[in-house]
Every structure is written in structure tokens, then in C-alpha cells.
Amino acid sequence: MKEKKETENKTMKPKEHLAIFFRGVKMLFSLSRVYIVCTIFKALLGSVIPYVPIYFSAKLLDEILGSVRTEQMVLYVGLTVGLAFLLNLLLTWLTVTKEAMEEELYRERDWMFSEKGMGMEYSCTENRDVAFLLARIQEESNSGYNLFFLYHSLGLGIGHITSIVFSASMMVSFFMLDAVSIYAKLGMVSGIVLTILLGIFATAQESKIHVAFYHKNVNMNVLSGKYRSLLANYATGVDIRLYGMEKKIEKGREKTEEEYYRNCMERDKKCVRFSVLCVVLQHLLKFGVYMVLIEAALCGAVSVGSIAKYVACIMLLLGAVSGLVSAVQRLCSNNYYLRRFFAYLDIPNRMYQGSLTVEKRLDNEYYVEFRDVSFCYPNTENYALRHVNVKFKVGGKLAVVGMNGSGKTTFIKLLCRLYDPTEGEILLNGVNIRKYDYDEYMSVFSVVFQDFQLFSFTLGQNVAAAKEYDEARVAECLSRVGFDGRLSAMPAGTQTYLYKDYSREGVEISGGEAQKIALARALYKDAPFLVLDEPTAALDPVAEYEVYRKFSELSGERTAIYISHRLASCRFCDSIVVFDKGRIVQYGSHEKLVADTGGKYYELWNAQAQYYVGKAEKT
Ligand code: ADP
Fold this sequence. Notes:
Layout: H1 2-9, H2 14-31, H3 33-48, H4 51-65, H5 70-119, H6 122-125, H7 128-142, H8 147-175, H9 182-232, H10 234-242, H11 246-298, H12 304-345, E1 367-376, E2 383-393, E3 397-402, H13 408-415, E4 423-428, E5 431-432, H14 438-442, E6 445-448, H15 459-464, H16 471-480, H17 484-488, H18 511-525, E7 529-533, H19 541-549, H20 551-555, E8 559-563, E9 575-580, E10 583-588, H21 590-595, H22 600-618
Parallel strand pairs: 3-8, 3-9, 6-7, 7-8
Antiparallel strand pairs: 1-2, 1-4, 4-5, 9-10
Bound molecules: adenosine-5'-diphosphate (ADP).
């Protein structure tokens, strides 16, 4: 990632600029072809329209000051107004069509991003660099950069090029006039070229100031966004209120925003001198052009109408050239944002490299083996697991015990391929699990982690983890985990919404109820492996007893892995793995482990037994 950061800040070569530009254009086309075609036509039309009145008004003026033929004058007025009207009508239609499709395009882009996020390796989602890259891209997209900046600049660029072509072609006749001296023509061309060059210089400087400003503020923007979302967040709202944190958060936000506005002022101050320079130059040129044209008019070389036409064309030409320069500069700056955008989309997903199908064995003889597995979480240096070696048979009941932070959950996360081991390998029937098709391997596990999440969908959809579900099966799973009483009290049964995000009638549920729903979800999936990580932590004693009592029935023929720090609840498992400081220190049946009085299991067992005995004695 350090390497990635270096590439991120590296100046791009023209070849790279072009590659990124074309990739962006290709992506825009793939997102919405019609929208882009509309944008191009709108740009072309928008830049042609101003030339209609310029051209015909000049003709009209000459007619008024010349032959004064009524039909000709009516024709020019008709063309000036009528043609402009028709073209404007077409432009309005294109604008409305384009805007109507804009939402669609935004949604397509957001889906593309969400799909990338969902398809990404889980370990990447918590990688700090990836998270920052994503936050940065979102911030840049909200500020109008990336893909949408590309399409805006593309539209502008096409418009400016059209404008340049039209202005230049309408100016050709001026340079053909013999009556205008070569010096006047050269003076005019030099003035235009000088103004263009200085315009390029000023735009380049402004663009540099803008890019530097953004680089300076990127962290602050991300931070400020985080502060804002903290204050608006329903989940953090309780703690913020209880511990009076609003003011501190607000202060933090104010500080970042004050600094941001200070930087804005500084940027604007730096930019203003270049804008003034451009305005002064353009007006000087305008003055010069008028002088040349008036002189030509006095000699009778150009008509009054043509003077107006040429001045308007030169001004449009200058505007278009500086607009084009600015569009190119901004496209180049935007390429740096696009590079980050594509870097995110290009993050590889090594999880999906396997292709083997998980073997369906009739004899149910499956073995899982951890072979010298060590693991470090992303962005950390300490090993959460160290040289873990264990082999267990599928179909049995395995308990995983140990103190907090000893590595139990990490062990399960590796087994479920949420992460790949840093060292060593995990085998299913002798085959490295990385070789299996990822989705198929994942479908083998039903897991309830401690920090499981429910969604603001209906109860049935939460249990089935799908939009459509088998109602009877959902009710059966809920009943098996002791949720039947609560279900019958729900206003719309399994169709009741959880929480109030999507429905006014949504219900709030307690931590214990949520845990039961999560258990029911694991049962509904009906996968060969049932993994429960502290499944009863939020349950009341009666519900907890029920889960223990029914554990064998709940897990049925499946392999059940049960993580708990309540050792009494692990006695009914066939074997127990004891973790301590990231290592497996013991493995065996309860009887065997408890007999080892010098072992960790005995120490944990004894500590808990004393606690219960002490309690019992006191009562
Ligand atoms: P247990 O389940 O036994 O309580 P864990 O497996 O959750 O323990 O954690 C083992 C170690 O890994 C702990 O030191 C913990 O701080 C660390 N750890 C857990 N999750 C992460 C994570 N996502 N990123 C970094 N470190 C983590």
C-alpha cells in the first residue's frame, strides 16, 4: 500500500493521461450510451446557437444600411429569430432528456461502486488505506470530480472546439480582405495569440492552485464528513447524548471547517490576480480589434454589420480557447482523481481464484485441518494467531474456549475465509480451502458472530437473508430458537419490519431478541457447518438455558463449532480447543482437559466454578 501511495502522488506522463482519459470515456459509455450522446449533441448545439444571430444580424444590419430590401430584411429577421428559436427548442429538449437520465447515471455509478465493495475481500474492507482511498474518492465525487467531471469537461471541450471552428471560419473572410493592411492583420493575429498564450498560462496557474488546495484539504474533508455522520448517526446517538459528547464533536467539526474556509480564502486570493490578468488582456485585445476594424470600415473594406460580426467572433473565439485550455487542464487534474477511482475498482480479489467444487460425500467423512497457521490482521504487526495446528472431523461438536482476545473469533474468521492465513494453510479433506470456489465454500457455513447485524427489512427477510422466503420455514426456525411467542405478538408476523428505517410500523427489538433472530437465520441457511460465537451473551438466563439444552437438536447432523468463555456450556461438545495468546494450548474432551490440573482449561474451569460456588453460597 505504501507503494500504492507513491504511485498515487506520482506525476503522470501524457501516455498515462490519455489511457486514463479513454478508460473513463469508455466507462461513461458503458454506464449510459444515450446520456453521453445527448451530452455531446447538447454541447454541439449550445455552441452553435450564438452564431446564428451573429451571422444573420450582421446581414440584417448591412441590409438596413445598404439596399433596404424588405423581403431580405424579413428573411433575416425570420432566420435570426426563427432558427434560434427552433435550435433553442431542441436544446431545451436535449437538456430535459439529459437531466432526466442523470439520476439513472448517478445510480449506475453508485451501484458499480457498491458492487465492487461487496465483492471485495473482507480483509480489504477493513484495511485502513483502502478505507481512506474510498473516503477520499467519495469526497472527490461529492465535490464533482472523477467520472462526472470527465463527462462535464468532455461536454465543455466539445462545445469549445465547435465554437473555435465556427469563429475561425467566420473570421476567414476578414483575413482575405486586401484593403486591410498586412500589419493590421499580423497585429490582430499576434494579439489573439498573445491573449491565448497568457490565458493558457493563467488557467494552468489557477488549475495548479486548485489541485494544491484540494491536496491540502483532503484529510480535513474526510474528517469533517466523519464528524457530520457521527452527529446524524442513529446508532451512536445514545452514547453521544449520555456522555454529552455533542459539543466536543461540534467543536472538532468547527475547527476543521474554519481551517477549510481559511484555505478557501487563500486559494481565491491567489487565483484572483490571474483572472484579473485575463480580463485586462481580453479588453485590451477587444480595443485593438475595434481600432483595426474601424480603420478598415473607414476605408470601406468592411461593412458595419461585419464589424459587429468579427468583434463577436473574436470574443467568442477567445472565450472558447481559454475555455478549452481550462477544460484540458481540468481534465488533466481530474485524471489524478480518476486514477484513484480506478485504483479502487482495480483492487484485486484473490478470494475468487479457486474453482474446485466442495465435494459432497455420502459417508460424511470430512476433516478440517489448520496446518501451522499464523495470522496478522491488516494494518497490524502483532500476530492474532501463532502456529495453530488442529485437525477435527466434520459432524462432531467442537468447542473453542479461551480468555478474551486469545484468538477464538480469529480462528473462525479464517476457517470461514473472511481472511486468508498470513502463514500456513487450512485444509478441507486435504485440499487447501483457497482452491475451492469461494461462493461455494462460503455456502458451507452458517455463522453467528457476536457482532452480527440485522437489517431494517422484514423479519422474514432477515431470517432468510433473501427477499423471497418460505414463511413456514422461517416460523419454524424462529420457534426453534424460542422466538415464537414474540413472533405471534408482531403486528404483521414475519412481514413485520425490524426498526423504523423503511416502515413507520417497524418494531424495535431487544439485544436478546436480535440474537435469537440471528440464530434463526443461521438455522434457515441450513449449512453443513453451524458456528456460534458467544451465541447466548445477550440472552436472559432462561433463553440461554434453552439454547444449551437444545444445542444438539439445533445443530443436528451438522458440524457445530461453539465459541464461549462459559466453560459449563462446552461440556456437551465432543472436543474442546483451548486458546491462549493466539496459540492452541490444549485440545481434547472435557474430562481429559479438566484432569490436567496444570493446564489452562483447568485454570479457567476452576475460576468459573469458584465464581458460581461463591454465588451459590452467598445466596
Ligand atoms: P477472542 O475471540 O478470543 O476474544 P479475537 O480473535 O477477537 O479474540 O482477537 C484476537 C486478537 O486479534 C486480539 O488481540 C484482538 O485485539 C485482535 N483483533 C481482533 N480483530 C481485529 C481486527 N479486525 N483488526 C486488528 N486486530 C484485531
